[in-house]
Each structure stands twice: as structure tokens, then as C-alpha cells.
Amino acid sequence: MSENLLTVGRSVPPIYGIEKATGALCFPADVTLPGMLWMKILRSPHAHARILEVDATAAHKMKGVAAILTHRDVPRVLFGPYQNEIYALEEELRFVGDTVAAVAAEDWNIAEEAVRALRVKYEVLPAIHDAEAGTQSGAPDAIVDYPDPLSIKPGDIRADQLATFGNIIGLKEGGPTVANRRGDVEAGFQQSDVLVERVFRQSEVNAVSHEPRACVAIYEDGKCTLWCSVQDPYRLQDGAARVLGLPMANVRVVATNLGGAFGVKVTGRFAILCALLARDTGRPVKIWFSREEESIDSHNRSALTHYVRAGAKKDGSLTAIQVRTFLDNGYWPFGGLGQNIGFAICTRPVDLYHRCPNVNWEVFVVRTNRPSTGPYRGRADAESHFPVESVMDELAQKIAMDPIEFRLKNRLRQGDDLCSAPKKIVSTVWLEEAARSGAAAIDWQRRAALRASHSGARKRGMGMAMVIHSCGSNPAGTSEAEVAIDSEGRIALFSGTADQGSEQQTTLRQMVAEVFGVALDDVGGANADTSTCPFDSGPFSSRTVYATGIAACRAAETAKSKLLECASLVLNTAAKDLETGNKFVWLRGDRSKRLSLRDVAAHAGGSIRGHGIHRPNEDPLFAYGFAAAFAEVEVDIETGEVKVIRLVSSHDVGRAINPMIVEGQILGGAAQGLGYALTEGFCFDQRTGTALNQWFLDLRTPSILDIPDIEPVIVELGEPTHPFGAKGCSEISYVGVAPAIANAICHATGARVTELPMTPDVVLKALREAKRTGA
Amino acid sequence: MDAQEIHDITLMINGKVHQVSVDSNWTLNDVLRNRLGLTGTKRACDYGGCGSCTVLMDGLDVYSCSILAMEAAGKEILTIEGLGTGENLHPLQKSFALSYAAQCGWCTPGMIMSAKALLDREPNPTEQAVRVALSGVLCRCTGYTSIIQAVLGAARVMRGDS
Prior knowledge:
Low-confidence stretches of chain B: none
Structural class of chain B: alpha+beta
Mean pLDDT of chain A: 94
Helix content of chain A: 25-40%
Shape of chain B: globular
Distance between the termini of chain B: 59 Å
Radius of gyration of chain A: 27 Å
Mean pLDDT of chain B: 95
Oligomer: heterodimer
């Protein structure tokens, strides 16, 4: 990174910082309009039921009730965030909390009372509360009425490939499992010197965005505007337009700033119902979720069970990995990208350990009568790395090899082909560099002495995990961007991505500013407003800095070449001899021959615009992010309590466009990963399917008192497929924390913890098991 | 259904007097956000579980979701809007804004108001004192490190140390 850059690589303050710190920033939940009605949802008390009758007589009579929608009142038009597969309201209810009906009233109290006044007769149906049980023969259907896969318009997955096998969502070709097979695992186990066999269980967790979902809708003269907490405003625009029967041009969605999202704030019934109520009443309508609603009417990280076997030779070569995974898809017909998550689960860790010749990993994606599950920060990899990285550690221990060296011996290398991105090869792999830097930061050399030095009830240990995760080079999704220079010479970036807290607009504008050689302050713009910004599939999978970044740089280069062409006419020279800088266009080598951007723009007779696009699959090279997480823990073997003393989170980020933001994302991801590791996890009543801990204090996200010393480490060795060499890193920082802590616990105590979250009771169970087996 | 009583109360918010009619079950948070348009004060749970709705009441940091509007009558309320504006930032706001201590920004107003209450009573807090004082406000984005640094940085500025 030797070039002399103006803003790229600098920790400039984020553009929305002041508005966030003054409370001036307007989130969807902050939109208040004159004459606005409040909407509330009646939610299902049953895990699985059919609505026989909704009697709204009493609710309609209440003073201040403006409109009520039941399943009989909404258009039979499918929509959805991933593919079009749900209706605004349905007769069949599929989890405790499913949407039964919606009310709009003069204020929130009246709306709530009206919801309570609705009298509903339900026919209760048998329910599925566990993914594995849902695959048994004779299990009842978790969903009875669902659209034919062929009738749904696919988003990311190909509908014509889908098939269902009882409750299992599978593929027509390949059957009920998503599988990744190569070589012969039985032969691989024969060749192995050591073998590990374990069952891992992970609890369902919620993203816990602090802004509960909100939507404000207005409908006037056949046009609808929605301010909505969604990361996919263009999907909502499409869905709302089709349900309302409007052309897409008549629907505008604004999602400029969101109070956290983490992948799960996507198009949903709440927004479509809000739009329908605005149309029916002719007044603005607002819905704002309670915390309980935000917890259950979301897309959570799935509960999982993994049955794992893995073998290795004494020299450290992996010989075979065999896994059978059961993934709880929740109540959506296909939803939650279950198929794509299944595919990523069974391919990405196998890519990470590319040298392993024999693999058989099967994933069963199972419909249940539980909240929907879907892509939450670190999707698929947080799901898969806990078992894989735990087993890698155990194999290394069995052959008495350093866990870092064992992993590095089997790892992916630059130019390797990828089973997670067929027909592609990996562009750069700075995994070893990340691992070595992280090891130095935590002083891995102390590891043996650390354990020996704590011999009482409180044991110390150190563990690590390696991670592969999307850095934005996603096979799904398209990003567009537009860069405009107005007649005053001001530069603006228009991008379809919401800022959910990662301040990507800052990072994107830094890149645009760099293309023009101006300061960040000289680039303005707008984001995530479908009426002014070009399409973007949204800030998912850490894709904005990478994919939208490529589109933004292309848009800037196009606008810049138009600018130079225009200047070349005035300066009477060839465009190729001109360059930009400091808000001027000047002759390369003779800066006295120059025009200000403003003068060039004035000559252009209007705005200069450049459009850029990044399409999936446009490059045979595929960029991945890599990381190594390190944890030092203290385990109280009498109480089972785990105290994390230190975390080091080391990342291959290609290049940090804004190191302060990159470090902030790494720190935040590590803290969330800490919650996944130690405290978070839904408990459901197994008989009724009711979530028991959907309230903040019971969700047990880490507080300021729970956070250990966390050190972010940034490895910047570039990425040739991105104009500034950047890889996204907001998600990957979550993934390695839980397995690194589990491995540290094992190093400290000899006990292998195989469940998440690793609460004291779970740790005590593992300690007893270790004692029993003499580990 | 119980008939709710309507009360006319006087609220002193950010140095201004507001006459409002409130239902007896309305919280201070309801009134700030939905009646007075002071949406800088957030709400993430509505039952005292997260602290994003924190405001100062007679100098004390309180959860506005857990204070009835009627309880706040006659008390001095300070919200994030009264602390400073884009042109005239409070050192805490400046510190949070410049150091990426506000990621999504939803907990930020509550976090800053809680920090203000701390610095008013303890201008030179230790890191541990900052942690304890802010432990009533949860953040999901930052991992808290940048928040602690921002508060300590603002404290230094306010003391004139930097």
C-alpha cells in the first residue's frame, strides 16, 4: 500500500456521526406525520392453527378504530424478501406470534385495545417443535398450505430446483439434503491415525437490533411512500407495488438509516399491511414493533444440531470430515434462505480445509413451527464454524500438534478452486498472515505456561479458531451506484444501501473522493431511497464496501471521464492528458493549465453523471475474508463460570478504507460473538412453542460490564478484484469467537463444551463428562 | 376497559415549558416522542431493559419509558436535543461523533445522557467508573470500547486536560 492516497486508508469521522450524537438523525421509527394512525398486530397464541373465524364487531365499534384487516381482506398476491412466498395475511398460522390480523386506530392505546377485542376461533393443528423430530416418518406437517415452488418468483435461490420431502426443504435433484461430497470418507477414516466424533448443539439467537422494526406509510393519488426499517428497500418496493396493484414507479421506499439490522431486517408482513391500511384509510399509518415482536417476528440464527466425525494422520493431514446437520428453518415455506445457508454451511468450512480429500457433509433444512430463521451476521459460518473449529482443535490435540500449525497445514491456498463458489478460484488468502499476527498479539507462546500457572479452582487457558466468510464477493446480489457532478461542481454518490450502523456511506464516499482526488467533505449524496438511488440488493454478507464499492468506483470513473472530456474541449487538449485533484481538472505536468470542477460542470450545461454496476459472477476470481480469533479464558471448575480475559480478533481485510470504522466493526462483531458464545439463546416452551425469553434482560446480550479486553488486528495485503483492494469484514468478526472460547475452555480444563451458549450449567456438564471419560 | 383519565400537566423540557394533556398511563417517553416530536430520545424495549430512552430528570439519569408523564410534571427534564446541536456540540456529542462511538446511533442518545449524569457528578472518572455508570444502557453494535474511550476523552476536554 505505497500509493499516496488522500482519504482512502484514513480514519476520517463518519458522515452520520454528528446527527447520531445529537439525536437529529431520523430513523423510520422517528417519522411522525399529521393525522397519522397507529397500527397494531394481533398475533397467534398457537404454534400451528387454522383461523376458522375472526369476529371484529366489537373492535369496529370502538371509538377511534379506523380499519381492520383480516386474511379475508388482503390481496392474494405473494411477496417476500428472498422469494415471493408469503401473503400479507394467511388462514394458516405457523408459529406463536404469527400475524393474525392488523388494526389501525387514532393512537397506540386504542389500537392495542382493538386488537384485544378481536374474537378469533382457531382450529389447533399439530406442531413441529424440533428440526430433527420434523424429519421423522409420520411427523405432522409444520406447514400445510404453501405455494408450489414453481409459482414463487425466485430471489436468490432457483425455485425450479426446490422440492419438499415432508418437512424437509430439499432439492429436486439430490433429494432431501443439501450435500457436499468428495472422495470417500470411509476410506479416509481407515487412513486416519486419530478420530474425533462429537455432537454439537447451538441455540437459536436473535440479532437484537436496538431499533425495533418500524414502518410509516402514506398513500395518496395512487402513490405510496414507505419509511421502513428494511435492508432490502427495492424488494419491499417490488412487493408493495404488486400487493397494492401499483406500478413500481408509484411506490417509494426510504430506508436511509436503520438502528441496527445485522441481516435480518427485511421485507415483511408488517410493512405490506401498513401500506394496505394507509390505502384503506387514506391516512398515514405507523407501526412500531415492541421488543417482543422484534424478537420473534424476525429471522433468527437457526437452532442447529451437528453430528460430526473427523480424522487425521499423525503428520497433521486431515483425512476425512463427515457431518450431518439439522437446521431449523422455522415457519416460512422456503424462506430464510434455508437452501443457501445449507449450501454455505456444507461448503465453506470444507473450502477452508481444502486439503482434506474426503468429505461428506449433509444438511437437512427442516420446517418447524418456530420463528423464521435466516441470514444473521456471519450467516452459515457462525452456524458451521463452532463444530468444525472445535473438532480441528481436538484433532490437533490428539496428535500433539500446535492448533495453528495443524490448521495451516490443511488450509485453502491462493488459486485453489472453491466448492462454495463452483467454477471459481479464490483470489487471495491472507489467512496465515492473520493467524500469525493474531498469535503475536495474544502472545500464543505463553499458552503452555499459562495453563500450568493456574492450578486452583480457577483454570486458565488459551484457544483459537480460524474463519472463512463472505467479504462481499457473493454469488447473489447486484449493486449499482451513480455519481453525479452538479452544475456547481459538487460531487454526489447515490447508493441504494441503507446505513444500519456500519457507516458504509462514509467508506463509499471516501473511495469516490479518492477517484476525484478531493476530500471526503467534497462528496455528498443520498442513500437507500428508491426514488433517487439506483438498485442495490442491500447491505448483506459484508458486501457493501466490496460489491457496492466496486460499483461506486466504476460510477466515479465514468463520471470522471465525462468530466475530463468536457474539460478537454475547453482546454483544447486530449482528455487522456488531464487529471483531477483538489477540485480542479488540470493538465498532467502543468497544473497552471486548469479549470475548476465548477467551471467544467458549468460548461457541461447540466449535471455530469456516471453509472456503475457490479454483477455477481462477473469475475472468475472469488474474494473471501479470512480471520483468526484468539481467546484467553478463566474457568471456575466449581461453578462452571467462564470469564473471558482477552480476545484478539485478527482479520484479512485486504485494505482498510477507514481503519477506525474497520476496527469498530471488528470490536462490535467480537462483542456480539461473545454473546453467542456465552449467554444468548432462545428458550421455548417445548409443549406450546412459546418463546420464553424475548425480553431484553432475558435475551442476555453483553453489557458494558461483560466486555473483556478486545484487540482488533488488521492485516492489509490487498485484494486485486477490488479497486482499492478492500474486503468487507463486518460479519466475519462474529464467527470465530464462540469456537475460540470453547477451545480455550478445553485447553484450561480438558472439558470439551459442545453446546451454545456455554452457560455455567453447560460447562459443568462438560466438566463432569471430562472427569467421567478421564480426559 | 377502564376509562383513562386525562390530566393537564406542565413539563419543563430542555429549559422550555410545555403544557400537555396526557392520559394517566402515558410514559414520559410517549410524550417526548409522540406528542412533542422530541424523537432524539429512543425506545428499544419500553420496560427498563435497555436504557436507550435515558434522559436526565433533575440531573439524574432515568429511563423515560419507565417514568409516567405525570411523575415528570414540575421536574427539569434534559434530553439529547437540549444537550447540544450540530452547530454547538456538547463535548460528549463531539467525542462520540468523531470516534465512531455511535454506530447505528440508536443507543447513542441514552448512552450520552447517562455519561452526562456521570461527568456532572464525577468529572474525572476511572474506566471502571465509566463502565459501572453506563451499565444501564445496552449497545449492540460497538462492543462498548469506543464508547468508554469517547466518555473518557470528553471528560478530559471538559476538565481542560487535553
